[in-house]
Design brief:
By secondary structure, this protein is α+β, with helices and mostly antiparallel strands. The protein has four domains: 143 residues, Rossmann fold, CATH 3.40.50.261; 68 residues, ATP-grasp fold, A domain (Dna Ligase, domain 1); 112 residues, D-amino Acid Aminotransferase, Chain A, domain 1; 169 residues, Aminopeptidase (3-Layer(aba) Sandwich), CATH 3.40.630. Helix content is 35%, strand content 22%. The protein is built from 17 helices and 19 strands. The strands form four sheets. An eight-stranded mixed beta sheet has the order 12-13-14-15-16-17-19-18, with helices on both faces. Helix 3 runs parallel beside helix 4, helix 9 packs across helix 10 and helix 11 packs across helix 12. It is flat, with a radius of gyration of 32 Å. It starts with a helix and ends in a 7-residue tail after the last strand. About 1% of the residues have low confidence.
Length: 564
């Protein structure tokens, strides 16, 4: 029962080592090769239980132990519980138990708990409890994991995407033609073979010359796309194919799409889809060229490199598809598209051909909702707030020095640690109000893995891309009242007195105002004269903290009329 439940919960049974097997074999009355689960057999005494517990806990492959007991004449419940508890009392690994048949008896339970062993009603309950602990540990490891740098995707051309939306709405349509889908995807760096929508045979011939032979023709209708023509290699073939499509009694209002046929090479083929759920908003689906959305692996955007790889692996199992990095980059671009375009409600990238170098979309279908807003407006169309690319900017300091400013990302953990380590002892004390030699892993994760819906951390970067360093950080986090946020700012010692803190705080204040906060508050040490001067220049009002004479409380009312 316990082993079956472990399999259902994804908990692996430990593969006990040879030394442990030999120790356990000596406990059995007859020759048998011990395995996991290990059966002590019906005539087992409390002493046999007590001997098995330390032998199993000493095995390096064992992370936890579950003792199961059913009362027998040779193993009374309370005596056996005392023996197990004594053996497990100094254990550094979790020991769980299920004393079946003794649920209503307090003596066995008290004996087990005296040794730090928790008794569960059933074996399944015990396995479930351990699965929760294992999940928590795994999630904490992921939380503290420093992600690798994101691939450079480039800045999307949101204006080009909006021009596509405008053309479709002007034509009283919601479904994009292939050439429009191509323009939309290209705005986010997703490539498709060239195509063009035409209304005449000469237009088709001109498009074919411009795109390059060989091509194929298709009629793009409101609800479907007619089967493609044969491979067309010259203008005469294009003219005949166009005439055949038009003679098929299709209204002339439907555009004929001229498509470039790409050179085919050994590749894998996948599908990527986006659907809009009424509750969760956009959902990204991924699968191996499957015809049904029910067969896709699904994930909520925004995606990062880790999540994109997890989505791919969830569909592929243990097999690693060709062009894994190319696929991950494609999913990141799709994620950026759905984050920036709340008006896109459906997207299907059918027949995506993947190589080690690239992932190219051979055909795309997209549907928009003209009633949805053109801008993301705080990303209210999404269940999870994505990375706010709109906050990326450049500031100019005294002397014309320019620094890039952007919100912090989990991938910045190494830069954040170096920034704090580089602060003088006094600067660290002023920022954290305690003597802090360096950031703990938990603090590092907390400072770099932020919830962009509730908080923002802006970093100023000096240096060329790839060798940048953080020289200042300004952040706020929403308070429980939903109306105010608490801020903090730190500037590298070498950059003091150059206006960097003032400029970065101006951006942070503007961001807080756009998010609808009514005030910014912060705590500043009374001896931190430079910081008090900075916030006073920004319009903050300082007052003595009634609960701590060594610090000041500073507050800025965020009236919408005042500009910074």
């Amino acid at each position: 029962m316990a082993a079956d439940r472990a399999a259902d919960a994804g908990i692996a049974l430990a593969k006990i080592g040879d030394e442990t097997r030999r120790s356990l074999a000596r406990l059995l009355p007859r020759e048998r090769v011990p395995d996991n689960p290990f059966d002590l057999e019906g005539e087992a005494t409390p002493a046999r239980f007590a001997a098995a517990v330390p032998a199993l806990l000493a095995d390096q492959e064992v992370d936890a132990l579950l003792c199961l007991h059913v009362a027998t004449p040779t193993a009374p419940p309370t005596d056996t519980a005392r023996a197990v508890a004594a053996a497990a009392k100094d254990a550094h690994k979790p020991v769980l138990a299920a004393w079946l048949g003794s649920i209503d008896r307090s003596e066995p339970r008290a004996a087990l708990e005296a040794g730090g062993v928790i008794n569960f009603y059933t074996p399944e309950n015990a396995v479930d409890a351990f699965s929760f602990v294992a999940s928590y540990r795994r999630n904490q490891e992921w939380l503290l994991e420093v992600p690798p740098p994101l691939p450079e995707l480039g800045v999307p051309d949101v204006a080009a995407a909006l021009r596509v939306r405008t053309r479709v709405i002007a034509d009283s349509r919601t479904r994009l033609r292939p050439d429009e889908a191509q323009d939309l995807l290209a705005a986010f760096g997703i490539t498709m073979p060239p195509c063009a929508a035409v209304k005449s045979a000469p237009g088709a011939q001109a498009a074919a010359r411009r795109i390059g032979y060989p091509v194929t023709l298709q009629v793009n209708e409101d609800e479907c796309v007619a089967p493609a023509s044969a491979i067309l290699r010259n203008a005469a073939m294009v003219r005949r194919a166009f005439s055949e499509l038009r003679s098929d009694a299709r209204p002339a209002k439907h555009a004929v799409v001229v498509r470039k046929l790409p050179k085919l090479s050994p590749t894998s083929t996948v599908n990527v889809c986006v659907y809009t759920d009424a509750v969760f908003g956009p959902i990204i689906g991924y699968g191996n060229a499957v015809p049904s959305a029910a067969e896709l692996s699904l994930m909520l955007p925004p995606l990062n490199q880790r999540l994109a790889l997890d989505l791919i692996k969830s569909a592929n199992g243990d097999s690693v598809p060709a062009g894994l990095d190319s696929l991950a980059t494609l999913l990141l671009r799709v994620s950026a598209l759905v984050c920036a375009a709340p008006w896109l409600v459906e997207l299907e990238l059918a027949t995506v051909r993947v190589t080690q170098e690239s992932a190219s979309v051979l055909w795309a279908r997209a549907v928009i909702d003209p009633q949805r807003p053109t801008a993301s407006e705080g990303y209210r169309h999404m269940a999870i707030h994505p990375y706010p690319t709109e906050l990326e900017t450049v500031i100019t300091l005294k002397g014309g020095v320019e620094l890039r400013v952007r919100p912090i990302r989990p991938e910045d953990a190494t830069l954040e640690r170096a920034f704090v380590d580089g602060l003088s002892e006094q600067s660290r004390y002023f920022r954290f109000m305690q003597h802090l030699p360096s950031l703990t892993p938990q603090m590092l994760a907390r400072f770099t893995q932020v919830d962009y819906d509730r908080e923002v951390a802006l970093i100023a970067l000096d240096g060329a891309p790839g060798s940048e360093s953080i020289v200042a950080v300004a952040r706020y986090i929403a308070n429980w009242d939903g109306e105010s946020a608490e801020f903090a700012v730190a500037v590298a010692d070498a950059w003091h007195g150059r206006g960097l803190g003032f400029a970065l705080m101006q951006l942070l204040i503007a961001c807080a105002r756009r998010r609808g906060f009514r005030r910014l508050t912060g705590a500043v040490l009374s001896i931190n004269a430079p910081m008090l001067a900075l916030v006073t220049a920004l319009g903050f009002v300082a007052r003595r903290d009634p609960n701590d004479a060594e610090q000041m409380i500073v507050t800025l009312e965020l009236s919408p009329e005042k500009n910074y």
